[in-house]
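pinging the channel bc i need a second pair of eyes. not urgent but kinda urgent?? the chain im working w is below, pasted from the shared doc
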Amino acid sequence: MSQNHGRLGRPLVALGTGALLVAALVAIPSSANAAGSTLGAAAAEKGRYFGAAIAAGRMNDSTYTSITNREFNMITAENEMKMDATEPNQNQFNFTNGDRIYNWAVQNGKRVRGHTLTWHAQQPGWMQNLSGTTLRNAMINHINGVLAHYKGKIYAWDVVNEAFADGSTARRDSNLQRTGNDWIEVAFRTARAADPSTKLCYNDYNIEDWNAAKTQGVYSMVRDFKSRGVPIDCVGFQSHFGTGGPPSTFQTTLANFAALGVDVQLTELDIQNAGTTAYANTVKACLNVARCTGITVWGVRDSDSWRTGANPLLFDNNGNKKSAYTAVLDTLNGGGTTITSNTTTRTTSNTQTSSRTTTSSTGGGTGGCSASYALASSWGSGFVATVTVTAGSGGTRGWRVAMTLPSGNAISNGWNASFSGSTGSVTATNASYNGTLGAGQTTSFGFQGTGSGS
């Protein structure tokens, strides 16, 4: 929680007729961090990790392990912790290759992300032949078996992988989905009970564009889970990009998911032809969202990539650093740059959407902050809103946003900030994890309320 060191600017600023009044009025300048000489070190200076997916079959390659050990501080097993690898025969678990990766990682001072507990693909043959209650029980048993083995050891698990259909807000048709629409919730609740210490993530691809239907489907599920207390801690964005890199709405997507009260992570990053601008923009988007906790590239050298011929990684076939590596390292050391947009959030078709984004800046003081309000969704009697705080040139060690809610509006719950008041004049103060922002960096908080939100 920041201490009040005095206002850095003008009083509350009206954000437009009938809109919330927002002004970020308290900012405490931050000091610059030392530059990191490797990807992991540079990310750590920003409070994040930079990891890689590795394969047990390549661990006898000294160039491969040398690069991985030098550059990365988070490790994901490429295939060795998936369902077919860990339970090849029903109730007969095999952790040989998963443990090889895990043990190497921790012996070299790295953390491990678990990938993945449930998935429609790479199921062992015996599981593919199951259905209904038998399959549901087998899924629960698998989660319990894997988490019992790795209990207390894994930073985060992808509990469910790729459960939504492409081009739609709907779930993917799979044998797991056919056990009942609650299968994802059951998987998360089972995982929390089995290992309360690990972060629980949902992971998917093609959910990076805020305007995509699939993104909205996943967002609605996460929002529902958070509202009902279903244990979900993070959302993984696989981030397999083409030559152009991330969509223009990528940072908006990360911020809007984070505003639901979950961490966001780039879990399988690779970019066709590894363009420097594409990689830099991807990293900037993560740096600009306080709850974007880390980035994992899906492989080490281009020759290790699943995207044969795409040359999508940061090291060439011989293990030499590519220009994209330098772009990523420079971006990590330089901090994020705020990406501005006149577009606002969009939600699923059963809610009304808003085109209003309103901004207020402190207007005075070195390194002042600004805040912008966006109505994410509204359904007549209630709404969800996101407020984005942007640090000025001096950065900040803490922030406070003052808002005036119009008559008839009230906050029922909020996330990523501490709230004082629920109607009329309301103050939101940074949480313990998002008060420190570098120059130009942003963080978001959100709230659900009664009323129209405008």
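so The domain at 21-32+339-450 is CATH 2.60.40.290 (Immunoglobulin-like). and The chain has eleven helices and 18 strands. — does that match what u expected or am i reading it wrong
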